[in-house]
């Protein structure tokens, strides 16, 4: 137990947190993220069997034609059948088992599980994170998703940890970039959860999304099959940050793209 607590503390040490951003971050522009999604490098056949099995519980009568309705059903099922717990850092199949049948996980675990369900349901998806620039130890960041909703012909920000969508004054769902465009020009932004009875604390939304120091980054080129293989073989013996560094050295690591801000602000 003491060893686990030591590893937990070490993994969240500011030096390791900032080192990760130094190694993985790239500046880009809006056009530079156009073709970035999770589906390109992650085929249905590469998603662990447990996702396909549980997907039949999520959509017992098949997925609706509406992408947005499908997302809401999926998120409702995940929130009804999972718990909040410590960060998992497990292969994706084991992460789903722990999230649903065990001790739960954190926002990044939920976002990763959501990615895989989207792939097997033909929903184009990508994963975003936020951090503070300059770095603020009191704000550890947040992970969420964005789905291309075909009936709206646009990307829509989906927070599967809270069942939350952001809207403009016309009650139209917002993409990630639209949210920050409105927020940074002090225009009206609304949000709510599509989970019945769920209340979202405005304080949490301000901290993770709308704080002026928060900057979003897109997680690109994540190969689920590759990370599953490394984690399955090395996780019992090596800390997670060492495993991720091994994948980086192999040339198959994910990276962060910053379309709105210079990532070097994090270190100022």
Largest sheet: 6 strands, mixed
Total number of distinct structural domains? 1
Outline the low-pLDDT stretches: 1-10
Shape estimate: globular
Q: Which strand order does the major sheet show?
A: 1-8-7-2-3-4
How many strands in all? Answer: 8
What is the count of helical runs? 10
Structural class: alpha+beta
Average residue-wise pLDDT:
90
Gyration radius from CA atoms, angstroms: 18 Å
Distance between the termini: 36 Å
| Proportion of helical residues | 40-55%
Order of helices and strands: HHEHHHHEEEEHEHEHHE
Q: Strand-residue fraction?
A: 15-25%
Domain Transglutaminase-like: 66-160
Protein name: Transglutaminase domain-containing protein
Pfam family, one: Transglut_core
InterPro entries: Papain-like_cys_pep_sf, Transglutaminase-like
């Amino acid at each position: 137990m003491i060893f686990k607590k030591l590893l937990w503390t070490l993994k969240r040490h500011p030096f390791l947190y900032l080192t990760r951003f130094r190694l993985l971050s790239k500046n880009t522009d809006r056009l530079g993220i156009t073709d970035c999604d999770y589906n390109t490098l992650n085929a249905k056949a590469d998603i662990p069997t447990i996702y396909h099995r549980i997907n039949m519980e999520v959509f017992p009568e098949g997925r609706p034609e509406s992408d947005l309705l499908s997302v809401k059903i999926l998120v409702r099922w995940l929130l009804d059948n999972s718990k909040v717990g410590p960060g998992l850092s497990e292969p994706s199949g084991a992460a789903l088992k722990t999230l649903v049948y065990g001790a739960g996980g954190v926002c990044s675990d939920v976002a990763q599980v959501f990615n895989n369900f989207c792939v097997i349901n033909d929903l184009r998806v990508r994963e975003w994170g936020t951090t503070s620039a300059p770095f603020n130890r009191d704000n550890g960041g947040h992970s969420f998703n964005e789905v291309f909703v075909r009936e709206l012909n646009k990307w829509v920000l989906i927070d599967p940890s809270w069942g939350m969508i952001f809207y403009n004054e016309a009650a139209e769902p917002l993409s990630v970039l639209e949210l920050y465009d409105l927020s940074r020009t002090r225009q009206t932004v609304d949000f709510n959860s599509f989970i019945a009875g769920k209340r979202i604390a405005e304080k949490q939304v301000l901290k993770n999304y709308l704080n002026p120091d928060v900057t979003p980054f897109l997680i690109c080129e994540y190969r689920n099959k590759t990370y599953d293989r490394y984690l399955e073989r090395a996780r019992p013996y090596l800390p997670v940050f060492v495993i991720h560094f091994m994948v980086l050295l192999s040339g198959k690591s994910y990276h962060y793209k910053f379309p709105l801000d210079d990532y070097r602000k994090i270190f100022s």
